[in-house]
Backbone:
């Protein structure tokens, strides 16, 4: 007898993958140059040259048994040291190697944190718009997801809306900044307001409400924007990170959980992350990649391409009349469908123009669609007439 | 509030790691040459040269975006094709790429299979002696572990003992051959007896009982022994594998689940493996290593060192009077403590001789201890007097 929940989770079509697959099919029929694919959040800038150089060097200088051997579960000491030093320098806050548990990517990191807080009835708040995988991550790992509606004015955190949803079972709030799908970076002001609410409510309900901060896009910001370091604003913060985006190596599955030692129940939280990881089959983080990030974690991504795409797409679409959130980070543009129906807009754009976007109902904002602009710039240029025609058609339809 | 189960799983001391850590401490005090460490099942032969050559070639010939990019969840098509072709050739049975789900190592592979069969009350049988991690893998993933005592005569499968423990809730039997810790390879005869029992009992209880075959040591065999390919003996078999041992790269976390398409509910099983993996944070298997195993999966490990160690240790210990299971595979020697108390023997050997073994109570055989002979041969030679003295002391104690 097969577990039906997991069977469903393994078969339910991902909307993103479905549209992406449609695009591949169309590309075969009508030529790739006639398909405008904005579906996947897959880095389009190569890894810094140092990544491959480091890999080659390591294969020549480190003994095979060490290079490809097991590390302890939280990672090699050298890797944890290097990452802690990098974070300390970057954020001006002492980060200890022993506060880091290296994982196979940010998804595993976040899930181990969720499991660490799970119990029957535990509630975890998620702010719309949100990465759709948060739902199965939470619901299939022993907690209940409670959705906080989006503030569609600013796409910042609506602290009052968070407060209204806190119950004695609230264990955490997941935040994701720079945000997928909106591209918004949560401001220090909005984070401070959230921190005030969480501090007050934690006292009220008699146990800590943690922030689980999912930060794979932390290094992808534009216009000189600073991403506030959340543990400096709210003490009970646990971070999930991966180098998937900052080093353009999403397939290599390397990230970490950062459990600051000054959070409530820090030792128990860290242990529970280790225990949850253990029963998810984490034996150690990938060993070669641990040494790669140890060497490369201070490499900055070359954001010029993303930034050029961001400006081109944002400026062009707003000039046409689209309402878009001004993205400050990540590589997504979050656009309001002129007819107010993201699903319908995406369907029509796909069928009539081979213009592939992702409807945002799954992100908690059904009026919107998401464009991933980690694409070739010339594809954006060629796609603009399609956006224009779609605007005219769907604006009329909305009247 | 922190989940107590995961906190405990993250803090309870592993006996193996504790003894290993003691050995490191002692090495600092009295010199590494005076510590005889047989604790860790960590490969001691380097990865085949082709592994590092392939890694270097890939960094030069494959575009970074592809090399380090996401694959689909079950792996790159090329990697699944290569592995399927290799298995087909090796075992004379058509293995399809679509039957393979690549994972971050065998632990993740086995756990996703366990989760695929989990429900409240589901029972999974485990045969002693067994890899101790099976217990948390099963018990923290929604099933109950039912232990089948060892047949200490042969350390083969005791089919009657299995049959006696099957209930209407029995979902699977985990088998591990070559076995950790006994080094025994289950014979075709013993497997056929098990298959007969499982077929009969599956009919009786009205649903399939699967074999979950955990095979990380499959390529580590000696004396020309053949490891039977279990799906050819019992149809409802799902295999977990990793290249940790066969390519000496345990830190790289790359393996697979093989769900043959002719097992009962094959499509649902495969989907449930995918769904379970998804909510454990598996996004894709490590991308560089997928290509490495695609290139290197037909490389055979150079077993000469292991075999030399095996013969030396087995012959020496049996000549001294120890009762040992004759190991045909893996890199473990399973030894009966002369005083019949594995815990006490290990404690004394550690304290008096800095001879580090693992007591086998956690493996389900408290009279035994395990020696991992993936070590330097000269360490074995130097350790023999300690074994001899321990034999004399504990044999006397047993009288």
Residues:
């Amino acid at each position: 007898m097969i577990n039906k929940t997991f069977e469903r989770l393994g078969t339910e079509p991902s909307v993103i993958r479905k549209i992406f697959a449609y695009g591949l099919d169309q590309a075969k029929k009508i030529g790739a140059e006639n398909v405008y694919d904005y579906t996947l959040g897959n880095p389009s800038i190569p890894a810094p040259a140092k990544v491959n150089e480091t890999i080659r060097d390591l294969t020549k200088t480190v003994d095979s048994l060490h290079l490809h051997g097991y590390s302890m579960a939280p990672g090699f000491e050298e890797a944890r040291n290097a990452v802690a030093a990098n974070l300390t320098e970057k954020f001006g806050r002492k980060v200890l190697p022993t506060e880091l548990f290296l994982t196979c990517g940010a998804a595993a990191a976040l899930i181990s944190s969720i499991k660490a807080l799970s119990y029957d009835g535990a509630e975890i708040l998620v702010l719309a718009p949100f990465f759709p995988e948060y739902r199965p991550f939470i619901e299939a790992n022993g907690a209940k997801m409670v959705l906080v509606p989006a503030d569609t004015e600013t796409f910042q955190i609506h602290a009052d809306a968070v407060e209204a949803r806190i119950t004695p079972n609230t264990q955490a709030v997941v935040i994701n900044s720079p945000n997928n799908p909106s591209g918004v970076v949560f401001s220090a002001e909005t984070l401070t307001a959230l921190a005030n609410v969480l501090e007050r409510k934690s006292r009220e309900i008699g146990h800590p409400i943690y922030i689980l901060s999912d930060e794979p896009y932390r290094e992808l910001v534009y216009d000189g924007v600073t991403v506030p370091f959340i543990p400096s604003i709210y003490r009970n913060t646990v971070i999930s990170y991966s180098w998937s985006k900052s080093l353009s190596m999403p397939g290599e599955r390397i990230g970490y959980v950062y459990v600051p030692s000054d959070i409530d129940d820090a030792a128990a939280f860290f242990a529970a992350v280790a225990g949850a990881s253990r029963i998810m089959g984490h034996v150690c983080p990938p060993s070669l990649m641990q040494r790669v990030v140890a060497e490369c974690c201070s490499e900055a991504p070359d954001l010029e391409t993303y930034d050029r795409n961001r400006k081109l797409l944002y400026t062009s679409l707003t000039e046409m009349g689209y309402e878009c959130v001004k993205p400050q980070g990540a590589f997504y543009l979050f656009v309001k469908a002129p007819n107010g129906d993201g699903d319908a807009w995406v369907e029509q754009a796909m069928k009539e123009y081979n213009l592939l976007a992702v409807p945002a109902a799954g992100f908690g904002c059904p009026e919107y669609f998401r464009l991933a602009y980690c694409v070739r710039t010339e594809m954006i240029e060629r796609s603009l007439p399609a956006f224009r025609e779609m605007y005219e058609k769907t604006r009329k339809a909305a009247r």
Remarks:
- Residues 268 and 307 of chain A are 41 Å apart (CA to CA).
